[in-house]
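Just scan my protein:

——
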Amino acid sequence: MTAIVTGSSRGIGRATAISLSRLGYFVIVNYRSSKAEAEKTKEEIIRLGGRAVTCMADVSSEEDVKKLFETARSYGGADVLVNNAGVSYIGLLQDMSADEIKRVLDINLTGAILCSREAAKQMIPKKSGCIINIASMWGEVGASCEAVYSASKAGLIGFTKALAKELGPSGIRVNCVSPGVIKTDMNKELTEETLAELSEDTPLLRLGSPEEVAKAAAFLASEESSFITGQVLSVNGGITV
């Protein structure tokens, strides 16, 4: 069984790649620019007794995505796809350039769509497969000063629900994990004060870890969730802001 995890050189993607390897998946560790970090993810999987390769691909590039799935085809085709690659932008909408808006949407939403399209081509003949989209709580409730990021993640949630209906008859499940505030590089721009406030707003009174999100993704990739599709699994400590 082969799993592709986009943006798996670090953070949630890295933790998810490791979790899937523990389920027995051969993991394709995808990265765009962080080759050294991707190699570390691969080496950690191998150290734990798993199997993995790295593959450079920009998910916003149709050509790169096709190359990524050609790599998967050489290992039997994708059985699981985790659309994790993403970028953020913190700032007022009126201060964003058209290129900045396009970059967020291209990577966070279009990238997931392109990857899912190629995954479907490999999964449909097998009459099985699992696509997991990593969204965000901001895609559910919206975040001030992250309007385009929130829009991209809300779009990903809508895409999940629609694609689950489309691919369900082919035995393919499509679900979404929606993390809350997680200790990752994506949140390094937030001040300690802001992070403390978000922790206080979370009923569990702490931030989440990449490993906690990865466990949710691994559950959705396992047979234990065989009758679950079109759902949004929130991993957010109960936060509702």
Observations:
- The helical segments are 11-22, 35-47, 62-73, 98-123, 137-141, 147-167, 192-201, 210-221.
- The chain has eight helices and seven strands.
